[in-house]
Amino acid sequence: MVTLFRIAALAALVLTTTAHAADMAFFVKNKRTEAVAVELFSHDRETVWPGNDKVFLIDPSSRKSIPISCNAGERICYGAWVNGNDSISAGVGPDNDQPCDTCCFTCVEHSTETIDLVE
Description:
Residues 1-21 form the signal peptide. It comes from Mesorhizobium shangrilense. Keywords: Signal. This is Mlr4654 protein. The strands form two sheets. Strands 2, 3, 4, 6, 7 and 8 form a six-stranded antiparallel beta sheet that branches. By secondary structure, the chain is mostly beta strands. It has a single domain (20-117), classed as Immunoglobulin-like (Sandwich), CATH 2.60.40. The protein is globular. Helices cover 13% and strands 46% of the residues. The chain has one helix and nine strands. Strand 6 (75-82) and strand 7 form a beta hairpin. The N and C termini lie far apart (67 Å).
């Protein structure tokens, strides 16, 4: 009986400390005259969207909804750059190494954040 109680207590502890998965979206508006590449970076774990050395490509003057699954409360930052010229960048940049005060968002279930990329 004591062993069963310990197993139940351990299971409860694991379930309460596990991050809750959340589905949210980023709505990216490319107001530039060039196509841009975009990646989303978690600052709480080693996760990148879309990942696998791919990017979200957004044509000039276009909009794209990017749905992701993240951990509730996780901090997510965007990096964007002109396709073919990563020296022209926004957010945390293509290598996730640029300082940015306004390019990070908190993962919240069923929410949408808007990103405006301008000239």
